[in-house]
Amino acid sequence: MRIEHLTLFEVSLPLVHSFETSSHRKSGLQHILVRATDGDGRSGWGEIASPSDPYFTSETTGTAWLIANRYLGPAVLGSDWDEPAELETAWARIRGHEFAKAGFSAAAWDLHARSQERSLAAALGGTRSEVVAGVSLGIEPSIDQLLAQVERQVSAGYPRIKLKIAPGWDVEPVRAVRSQHPDLDLHVDANGAYPDTEDAAAVFRQLDEYALTMIEQPFTPRDFPAHARLQRRLETPICLDESVVALADLRTMIETKAGRVLNIKVSRMGGLSAAKRAHDLAMEAGIPVWCGGMHEFGVGRAANVAISSLPNFTLPSDVSGSDKYYERDVIVPPVIAERGRVPVPQGPGIGYDVDTDWVLKNTVRTAELVA
Ligand code: MG
Questions:
Q1: Which tens digit of pLDDT belongs to each residue from 150-175?
Q2: In sequence order, what E strands does the chain have?
Q3: Among all residues, which ones are annotated catalytic?
Q4: What's the domain range around 79?
Q5: Distance, CA 86 to ligand 1 centroid (Å)?
Q6: What's the 191 CA to ligand 1 centre distance in angstroms?
């Protein structure tokens, strides 16, 4: 297969509810959509869901635009491939830039699945017909506002709630939510905001009392020894997110026992092929996985739904309905969660149509690349 034509759209959409993590606050997002077209005029879509600022990863929308136009696009246009994973060979010389690569990887997988008239989930080896979705809640201005958000999502049927935490916003919000929802599947995500100190360990030991499903990325990304030491002192499983950007990181996590759960983000791993390999390795090592989100627009969200249908995605994934984030999504129909469950589409490719009118209305800039 050969991709003959690439179109990049930088699209800006406002969020329905602004979102705050330990590092930043956002009220809208700019992602890059990748449309890959073959010689028969068939197209596949992918999304580069890099945040606009370098706080989650070193990439930004701006760096992704540059790398996509100057390096990844030309590499993809020049290659012949049968399986989407082969594209990784085409861009092997390009170090890092996983989010940018993930957009091209997803477009190739969508195109590949469409050319075989299969769903993306089936092409990836998915086995589930629906995916259990959890929601992630940001740092709210007050505990009362957080409790109102939790109530709203629990009433909508989401079975798992994740709370963003940061120093000064940790034990109190968890205690408040837990006291109102004693049986809720609850987990916390620090996005690496804590130093590896005794004071921080004391906070996590307090959190250990609240029957959390996991504590995600407490320390600096890739500080495997610090996570391993903390894991030995906690009952609650530690989940790694930012620490694992390559398969080698996952091997280190397994060998050092730095955590018992893996958050697989397709973007962070550099695409669907890499995410699938991480899924397989984690399954072999007895580490359950779930799919984390980057507040993707529908194109990326649909790919997340597809990969979450693989067998070792046994924990709820961040694939909540589009409406939780966007008034109108870039796909039709939008991703819909019913009582916290999202059906895995059976139609060809990602199983949704891209709403190109809406994409163009919200496009900040475009680029065309031709073989
Ligand atoms: Mg995380």
A1: 999 999 999 999 999 999 999 999 99
A2: 3-20, 25-38, 43-48, 130-132, 135-137, 160-164, 185-189, 215-216, 238-240, 261-264, 289-291, 331-332, 341-343, 353-354, 363-370
A3: 164, 265
A4: 3-116+355-370
A5: 29
A6: 5
